[in-house]
Design a protein that fits this description.
By secondary structure, the chain is α/β, with parallel strands linked by helices. The protein has helices spanning 46-53, 76-86, 102-112, 119-132, 148-160, 178-195; strands at 2-15, 18-31, 35-40, 61-66, 69-70, 87-90, 166-170, 198-202, 214-219, 222-225. The strands form two sheets. Strands 6-7-8-3-9-10 form a six-stranded mixed beta sheet, sandwiched between helices. Strands 2-1-4-5 form a four-stranded antiparallel beta sheet, covered by helices on one side. The longest helix is centred in the C-terminal third of the chain and has 18 residues, at 178-195. The chain binds adenosine-5'-triphosphate and magnesium ion. This is Putative hemin import ATP-binding protein HrtA.
Length: 226
């Protein structure tokens, strides 16, 4: 079932008086619970496409439909609401807050979430998310005492604690060694399979492509294979 559709997405950046077209008409559909990998040379536009899809950056043309709703017709506040309720994000670096414990990182996320949960349900959500990423034992640790893979798993817990429909990930394993990359990918694959989360993931790493159900390749702002 198609959950998310990008239609004829265009993006241009101004460099002085000239305009450069970075995305040249991208069509892409994401199916519920499917893990799609977005690959392509550096500068081909992968991160730009991901941030536009996630509503983090404006587009120059085209439309984005999520659950049948046209996000390009929404105002900024409505887009923010969709993002906060239904989308999760993971980046190359975990970006944890250095002076908060693992559990506090997630509490902070729930404080800023759109939905307000009761204390009991907040506790249960935190335990669930940390158990999913196998970090519950580390709930009182600070980032400086964790490995790169552990930090990334906490970042993933933070991204899924509000039970998003779509997880957008930009090179989530790029800062990890191969063993940690495999762990993080197995986790992301499990999120798609067991929790039915739709995943769009940018990667450079050929070794982790086997986890993707679908591989979409970009070249010079266009999709060349999907
Ligand atoms: N805010 C911006 N202003 C101007 N140009 C930009 C901006 N963001 C990206 N670009 C340009 O758009 C092109 C695509 O960038 P993008 O970051 O999407 O590539 P990418 O495929 O993610 O590359 P990488 O694999 O290196 O991360 C690049 O030429 C980049 O310089
Ligand atoms: Mg990029």
């Amino acid at each position: 079932m198609s959950l998310f559709q990008l239609e004829d997405i265009k993006k241009e950046f101004k460099h002085g008086s000239t305009k450069e077209q970075i995305l040249k008409g991208i069509d892409l559909e994401l199916n519920k619970g499917e893990l799609t990998a977005l690959v392509g040379a550096s500068g081909s536009g992968k991160s730009t496409l991901l941030t536009i899809a996630a509503g983090l950056q404006d587009l120059s043309g085209g439309s984005i439909k999520f659950s049948g709703k046209n996000m390009t017709e929404m105002n900024a506040e409505e887009v923010r609401e969709v993002r906060a309720k239904y989308f999760g994000f993971v980046f190359q670096h975990a970006h944890l807050v250095p002076f908060l414990t693992v559990k506090e990182q997630l509490e902070l996320m729930l404080d800023t979430a759109e939905t307000k949960w009761s204390k009991k349900s907040r506790e249960a959500r935190i335990e669930d998310a940390l158990t999913t990423v196998d970090m519950w034992e580390h709930r009182d640790s600070y980032p400086e005492n964790m490995s790169g893979g552990e930090k990334q798993r906490v970042a993933i817990a933070r991204a899924i604690i509000h039970e998003p429909e779509i997880l957008f990930a930009d090179e989530p394993t790029a800062s990890l060694d191969s063993k940690r990359s495999v762990e993080v990918m197995e986790l992301i694959e499990r999120l798609a399979r067991e929790l039915n989360i739709t995943v769009l993931m940018v990667t450079h790493d050929n070794d982790i492509l086997k986890y993707a159900e679908r591989i979409v390749e970009m070249k010079d702002g266009k999709i060349i294979e999907s």
